[in-house]
Amino acid sequence: MSTNTITVIPGDGIGPDIVEATVKVLDAAGCNFNYDYADAGLAALANHGELMPESTLELIAKNPATLKGPLTTPIGTGFTSINVSLRKQFNLYANVRPVLSLKGTQARFDNVDIITVRENTEGMYSGAGQVISEDGLIAEAKSIITREGAERICTFAYELARKEGRKKVTAVHKANIMKTTSGLFLQVAREVAQRYPDIQSEEMIVDATCMKLVMDPSQFDVIVTTNLFGDILSDLCAGLVGGLGMAPGANIGEQSAIFEAVHGSAPDIAGQDLANPTALILGAIQMLEYLGMSEQAAKIRTAVQDTIASGENVTKDLGGNAGTKAFTDAIISRL
């Protein structure tokens, strides 16, 4: 396994536009990567007749990290979601979504710095046991939480907090009502917290967490939670810093890791030099940190922050008139 080769999945819609921009930034920062390009999503369906070809899975397994553009799962194909399938296939149990206030965005807050650590393979979101009665009147789904899954994600969150010099971990749950599933998660979270006396631990019910995030996000540091709650809370956190265009995500397992922008493929603006590549560039920063390349990661982060703060050569969603290429060039010129 060569650490200087990464797998790149351009994806659908604006995926190729923002992936090209991100690769240029990585090259300009002196990362010296080789790239193994692979198809997935609609592009793969067109080229290979399937959404996730075996050759793509082999490249994800072979290289230490994968950078992925947004993918479209066609409606009504019986395929739940390519992203969910990838998480299961490679056991990418930890979904890490950092949000950070950047000067120059249209966000309502300027003091947000939160990492949401979401369990990525279990719970309500995993789609287990979905059935609908023949008469279409009753639908059912299953939520399964395991002690192993809960312990693994909580330990991951505390280890990340320690590594990043974070002060506090908040375990988010609904154990007051969902006494078995959320109850087990909370019980395990309390046990894991005992092993990290250097980090402040708190627990919070999910609805109260939403309210407090909206009122004063500065009270949060690291949030750890189950799959469905994490999906909702991480998007809420993205809204605090200017939306999904500012939100990267990492999916991390024991052997593989996939880094992405968490927004959709926006096919309506594909290929028109309009997309904001910030989320994927921030995802690439997460990838560099994961690969131990923190110097390059810091360099790119500063360049992105300075570009957005300047208000010049920024994309429309950031209040400017620049296209993807001009915005990317502005970042590169600061490198």
Question: Which descriptors would you attach to this protein?
Answer:
single chain; 335 residues; alpha/beta; Isopropylmalate Dehydrogenase; Rossmann fold; ten-stranded mixed beta sheet; two-stranded antiparallel ribbon; oxidoreductase
In total, the number of strands is 12
Second-tier CATH architecture of the largest domain? 3-Layer(aba) Sandwich
C-alpha end-to-end distance: 29 Å
What does the overall shape look like?
globular
User: Element order, helices and strands?
Assistant: EHEHHEHEEEEHEHEHEHEEHHH
Rg calc: 20 Å
Main sheet overview: 10 strands, mixed
Number of helices: 11
CATH homologous superfamily heading of the largest domain: Isopropylmalate Dehydrogenase
In the predicted model, the low-confidence regions spanning at least 5 consecutive residues are none
InterPro entries: IsoCit/isopropylmalate_DH_CS (IPR019818), IsoPropMal-DH-like_dom (IPR024084)
Organism: Ferrimonas lipolytica
Keywords: Oxidoreductase
Domain Isopropylmalate dehydrogenase-like: 5-331
Describe it for me?
With 335 residues, this protein is an alpha/beta fold. The protein folds into 2 domains: 1-107 and 242-335, Isopropylmalate Dehydrogenase (3-Layer(aba) Sandwich); 125-226 and 235-240, Rossmann fold (3-Layer(aba) Sandwich). It is built from 11 helices and 12 strands. The strands form 2 sheets. It has a 10-stranded mixed beta sheet, with helices on both faces. A two-stranded antiparallel ribbon has the order 6-7. α1 packs across α9 (278-290). The longest helix is centred in the middle third of the chain and has 17 residues, at 147-163. The protein is globular and about 55 Å long. It starts with a strand and ends with a helix. 48% of the residues are buried. The mean pLDDT is 94. Keywords: Oxidoreductase. It is an enzyme of class 1 (oxidoreductase). Residues 5-331 form the Isopropylmalate dehydrogenase-like domain. GO terms for molecular function: isocitrate dehydrogenase (NAD+) activity; magnesium ion binding; NAD binding. InterPro entries: IsoCit/isopropylmalate_DH_CS, IsoPropMal-DH-like_dom.
